[in-house]
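Example 3.2
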Amino acid sequence: MYYEIEQMQRLIKEQDGAQIYYDPASLPWTKTVESSWKVIRQELDRLLMAIDLLPGFEEIQVEQEEITSDHRWKIFPLFAHGSWFEKNQSRCPETAKVLRAIPGLRVGMFSILQAGKEIPPHCGPYSGILRYHLGLKIPSPNTLCGISVGEEVAHWEEGASLLFDDTHMHYAWNRSSEDRVVLFLDITRPLPAGLAAKNEAVISLIGESEFITAAAEKWELWEGMYGERLDQHLSALTTAAGGAPLD
């Protein structure tokens, strides 16, 4: 698999050069996602009432221990390489509905940087995938939070998209006293037909790798230990706030 990845990295760099950020409007579905941000935010706000139960990224994907170890970069996965996290789908059905309409979706989750959290410089593993962020909960002023990709700095805005190649060195920070949350997606990079077919083959290999399958198993363990507790907590909080209990 590593040979195939290295070969594709070279071919993609020859095709796409050194571009770092991309215009989100080049992907037609981003407008629909942006128009749905308030609905997604409603489901997120409900989930954040139980934020202490959510795992740190490194608890689900152990490779992340190289860049985070304090459980303060939290995640809530919905989809990964062909598989839906069914119980999370039922917890956030409107968000899942939005994700189902996105062509080339490889990963979909909420990414939560808690107050004061910084992620050190690192590079993504494969340039056949692009990283997409939709700002959902962004502290004010938004300059307190940011991401630097290849030394180009960007700041999230609620309801707005960022699209970038995460194989460039990048790091992120939240220097505010509030949590920052984005909808975090990995999508297939648009490529010419011949190269796109090779890219699909490599992405399929990645999806079958231990890097992905072990993370799915970790989430299942988390679900077994905390899922029922999460649902009970969400239902109690929602009912107390006058909303409908969790089904």
